[in-house]
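Q: Could you fold this chain for me?
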Amino acid sequence: MAILQCVHTAILISDLSKAQAFYGDILGLEESKERALNFPGLWYQIGNYQIHLILQQNFANSVDNEAKWGRNPHLALATDALASIKAKLQDNNYPVQMSASGRKALFTQDPDGNIIEINERTRSEGLRSNK
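A: Sure. Below is the predicted structure, expressed as structure tokens.
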């Protein structure tokens, strides 16, 4: 028996339009049209992996470690354009906290306070194109 791959992560959200603006417009993730479940949410495709945003009315998230967001539950994504994403987040008033380790990574929060890590990788470091 072996686990072969991670196929998706489910994240609770309270507002579909705000979540779409963050994940689709700001992060530029591609929305998946392959969604067979019949409850409100959004599915985003990254290679063979999906992020499932599930609508839960009155969802309230909390960040336990405000000083270091990476020490809270979070989803980590990789990019080859960290500076560009950082600027886009800041231009759209999303909070940004740089990694305390000194590596090329930042943490941000979606509109519901879910923490997203974005770290910089090059194609030679195994970053695969979503296209």
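A (continued): The chain has one domain: 8-57+65-125.
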